[in-house]
Write a structure and sequence with these properties.
CATH superfamily of the largest domain: ATPase, nucleotide binding domain
Number of domains: 2
Distance between the termini: 17 Å
Helix content: 40-55%
Strand content: 15-25%
């Protein structure tokens, strides 16, 4: 059986949840299991549970005649991508200098490909979603954290040290909530974690220490809650300010935004587009579509297959 005929075990490792999927090179998902990452456990316990899930999916696939031939990983950075070494991602505390690629290869005896989750999301939307046919693409994760992936001139762009796309680290303001180790960072205003902190900062009597989440704020905003709407409108404005910079610098055809943009829609995208219209170069704005991820809730499952798909020539 050729490499492209083999099934892929995909690992979508995030700060909130981790999923193990069985898929293929045309983006079909045949099986899936997931568990709460529970980052307070650190690396060891999470890796053990991850491996248990891989074993279950692999055994079931083999019994069904779909024996997987490769493992493909999507995980947040910073990381050394080709070596598959995880370098202390802010949303995975305790994952410090983890040789994940080698550990998985040793455990399962399969080739392993690792990709930054922003890059993997960009590839997924480029292969299967809203960016098909485009040559210049920006993808933003906008989940628990806030990262990005770049397709420039039809090629994935990782940068000199694999940190291209780490847009969440950009400082947009001198004050505000803190995330990615920096007060006023883009991640601090526009990630799920950051939005909750923004709500607590703006409305401390209501939400400070209350355990509010971005999902809670979305539900409240959709129900017309004025405070939640104000927080998400502010998030949208900060989203637009960062996007205006990227549009001016990179002149993309399409910006695809995942996770929260899919759930929040115009609650954040409408104020973002208003800022972009005022801030970015008109010709660049006119040439650029800004859309939620077309893959929706399937994005993470497909993205975690894409390290292997890219390694074998794309879809």
């Amino acid at each position: 059986m050729s490499a492209r005929g083999e099934a892929i075990v995909g690992l979508d490792i995030g700060g909130t949840k981790t999923a193990v999927v069985l898929g293929d090179y045309v983006g079909q998902i045949h099986d899936r299991v997931s568990f709460a990452t529970r980052t307070e456990r650190g690396f060891g316990e999470t890796f053990a549970e991850l491996c248990e899930c891989v074993e279950k999916v692999r055994a079931k696939a083999t019994d069904a005649g779909r024996a997987p031939g490769v493992i493909s990983v999507s995980i947040g950075g910073p990381l050394e991508i080709e070596a598959g070494i995880v370098r202390s991602p802010p949303n995975l505390p305790g994952w410090d200098d983890i040789p994940l690629k080698q550990m998985l290869a040793d455990r399962f005896g399969l080739p392993v490909h690792v990709e930054h989750d922003g890059n993997a999301g960009a590839l997924a939307e480029w292969y299967f979603g809203a960016a098909r046919g485009a040559r210049n693409v920006i993808f933003l994760t906008m989940g628990t954290g806030f990262g990005g992936g770049l397709i420039l001139n039809g090629e994935l762009y990782r940068g000199t040290t694999d940190t291209a796309g780490e847009v969440g680290h950009i400082r947009l303001a001198d004050d505000g909530p803190t995330a990615f180790g920096k007060t006023g960072s883009w991640e601090a205003f526009c990630s799920g974690t950051g939005i909750a902190r923004l709500a607590a900062l703006r409305y401390p009597q209501r939400w400070s220490g209350a355990g509010i989440t971005a999902r809670d704020l979305a539900e409240l905003a959709h129900a017309g809650d004025a405070d939640a709407l104000a927080v998400l409108t502010e998030t949208g404005r900060w989203l637009g300010r960062g996007l205006a910079v990227l549009i001016d610098v990179l002149n993309p055809e399409v910006i695809v935004i995942g996770s929260l943009a899919v759930r929040l829609g115009d609650l954040v995208l409408a104020p973002a587009r208003g800022v972009i219209a005022r801030e970015a170069l008109p010709a660049a704005v006119a040439a650029c579509r800004i859309v939620p991820a077309a893959l929706g809730e399937r994005l993470g499952d497909l993205a975690c297959l894409c390290a292997a798909i890219r390694a074998h020539g794309g879809c």
